[in-house]
Amino acid sequence: MRALVVIALGGCGSSQPVEAPAGPPAPMAAPRASADDVVVATVNGQPVWGSCVATQARRGATRQAALAQCVDFELLAQKAIAYAGTSEVRTATHTAMVNELVASAYEDGYTQPAQFGPFWAQAYKQGVFHVRHENYRASSYVRITVPDHAPADVDAVAKRQAETIAAALAHEPGIMGANLVALAQAAAPDAKLDHQDVPAYRAGALDPAYATALFGLEDIGRASGAVRTKWGWDVLVWTEDVPATDPTEDEVTAALLPDVKRAYFSRWVDGLANQLGVHVALDRDNIAKLEDLP
Q: Which of 32, 39, 203, 267 could form a cystine bridge with 211, CB 3.0-4.6 A?
C-alpha cells in the first residue's frame, strides 16, 4: 500500500516544482526521547542521547559499541547537513516527508469504515459478494442456438443434436472447457456449436434451466444432459467450485479495507488540496513534450 501511494504521489504531484531555498537548513539536533533522557556525549556541541545508546544495546551491541555507534550517527548527520542544499537531498527529504505523511495520517489514520463516509457504503455494496456469498460454480457449455420464434422442427433438430452430445459425454470424466468442444463436435459433426467458459456464479444469477442442470451435477468435470435454455439447447460441464462463505462483519471489513483504502486515496489527497487552498496549474505544452522522452 505505501509503495503504491508514494508512486502515485511521485507521478502526480504539483506541475510547478517548488525550489527549496539554497544552502543547508537550520541546524538540527537529535531530539530528547523523554523527559529523563540524558546527554552522554556531544559532537561539535550537538547532543548524543542515552536513549540512542539504549536502543542500539537492545539490538545486540555492547554499551561501548552502542555509544560509538551513536556518536557515529551524529557525525554522519552533521556531515549530511553539508549536503542538504543539493537537489538529491532535497528530493530525498521531500519523498521522506510524503512517505511519513501517508503512513501516519492515511495508512495508520484511516482504519474504520466510518472514516470513509458514503464511499464505504458504495464500496461495501459492490464488494461484499466477493467475500460473503453462497456456493458459486463455474462452467463451460456447447450450445446449438435456436433463434427466437424458430419453427418447431428447427428446435427439434437442435434438441436431437444436443441429446447426441450429452449421451456421448455422459460417462466422460474430467471434461473441461479446453476439450469440451472437440468432444462435442466429434459426437455431432453436423451441429453448429457455440461455446463459452462461464465464470463462477451463484445459481440465482444464471438462466434457471442452466442453473438447475449445473447445480445438479455431482462431480467437477462431468457433463449434463441436454438442457433447453432461452438461447437454445445446451450441454454444460461443471468446471470449478467456489464454496459458500459466511464471514463475520469484522472479517468482511478486514477483507475489503485494503482495496477501499487504495480506491479512496485520491479523494483523500483532493481533500488535503481543498484544505490548503491549492491551485494546480498544468503546462499543456511541456506535458506534451513528455511523449518524446526515452
A: 203
Mean pLDDT (the chain, rounded): 87
Task: Band the pLDDT of 191: cuts 50, 70, 90.
Answer: very high
Cell numbers standing for residue 238: 461443471
**Those residues with Cβ within 8 angstroms of residue 55's Cβ, 6 or more apart along the chain or in another chain:** 66
Confidence band for 21, pLDDT divided at 50, 70 and 90 = very low
Instruction: Of 21-35, 90-104, 215-229, give the range with the top mean pLDDT.
Output: 215-229
Angle between helical axes of 2-11 and 87-101 (0-180°, round to 10) = 130
Report yes or no: 40 and 67 within 8 Å, Cβ to Cβ: yes
pTM for the predicted model, two decimal places:
0.55
For residue 71, give its domain range: 2-113
Cα–Cα dist 133/247, whole Å: 9
- CB distance 210 to 236 below 8 Å: yes
Same domain assignment for residues 13 and 78: yes
Q: Return the C-alpha cell found at 89.
A: 537531498
pLDDT tens per residue, range 171-190: 999 999 889 999 999 999 99
Q: Residues near 138 by Cβ (< 8 Å), separated by ≥ 6?
A: 197, 198, 199, 200, 201, 238, 239, 240, 241, 242
| Integer CA distances (angstroms), 104 to 8, 23, 87, 171, 254, in order | 17, 29, 26, 61, 19
Q: Which grid cell is 3? A: 509503495
Residues 166, 76: one domain? no
Let me know whether 78 and 142 are in one domain: no
Cα separation values, 87 from 7, 20, 83, 179, 279, Å: 19, 9, 9, 61, 24
